[in-house]
Amino acid sequence: xxxxxxxxxxxxxxxxxxxxxxxxxxxxxxxxxxxxxxxxxxxxxxxxxxxxxxxxxxxxxxxxxxxxxxxxxxxxxxxxxxxxxxxxxxxxxxxxxxxxxxxxxxxxxxxxxxxxxxxxxxxxxxxxxxxxxxxxxxxxxxxxxxxxxxxxxxxxxxxxxxxxxxxxxxxxxxxxxxxxxxxxxxxxxxxxxxxxxxxxxxxxxxxxxxxxxxxxxxxxxxxxxxxxxxxxxxxxxxxxxxxxxxxxxxxxxxxxxxxxxxxxxxxxxxxxxxxxxxxxxxxxxxxxxxxxxxxxxxxxxxxxxxx
Length: 307
Prior knowledge:
By secondary structure, the protein is an all-beta fold. The chain contains 2 helices and 20 strands. The protein has 2 domains: 1-214, Immunoglobulin-like (Sandwich), CATH 2.60.40; 221-306, Immunoglobulin-like (Sandwich), CATH 2.60.40.
C-alpha cells in the first residue's frame, strides 16, 4: 500500500529497550543507492500481524548530531513478512527539482515517504554517514544502523580494517538470517559485518521478503483466511499463468504467500477495477494464501491450493 507520509516530530536520542528475540519488528534491509535511491525494509519476525499505527517511528541522525529526526510510520506488517519504505522522489515536478528514484526501486515500495524538510533534516535522506534508528513509543530503541552521535566520515566500515570500502555508503545491506531482533542499545562501536551482508550499490531484487531464523513453521492459512466472500479467484487449484480475481470492492494490491511464509508474488494496481488477471510463476504443490488489499485500505485472505 503506497501512502505519502508527512514529517511529524523530533524525538530524543535517549532510548531504552527490553525487546526479546523474535518479538518485534527490526530493519531487515538498508538501501543507500545513488542520488535519491533510499529505502528501508522492516521485518515482522512474529506469528501475528503487527499494526504500526504511528507508535513506531524511524529516521536518520544527521551527521552524528545525536538527535535522530523520527518519522511516525503506519501500515500493517503481516507475519514473517516485510514492509518497504522508499523516499518519495517519483516525480521531480511533484517532489522538488531533484533526481527521481529509479523505476526498479519504485516498483518495490509499499510506502513512499514524503521528504518534507524540517531544518534540512529529512529523516529519509540518509547518506551512509547518518545512523538510522527504528523506535517504538518515542523512546524504545528497536534497531539502529550505525551509531547515534557519531559521524564516521564517508561511512562505517569494519573496525580495525580502514583499508576496506565503507559499508553504509553506496551499498545495499541485508540482515543475516540468524539475526532475530534489532540492536537494542546504541553501540559503542558499530561493526556492520557482524549482522549484515553487503551487496553492490542499487541492488533492489531482495526487497519485499526476508529470510529469518525466527520462522519456525508454516503460516496457518486457515486462521488468516477471512471475509473470503468479498472476492473470488479462478482457477483454484492454481498453476502457472493467469489467476483471475473478481471482487465486489475496488482492488489495490495482491500478495501470494507460500505455506512457509515466502512471498511468491506481490503486485500493485493503480486504476480502480474489480477484475484483475494476476500472472503467477510456477509453484510447487502445496497450500498458499492470497492477500487482497482493497482501495479502502482493508484486506481479505483466501486459501489457494497447488497440485
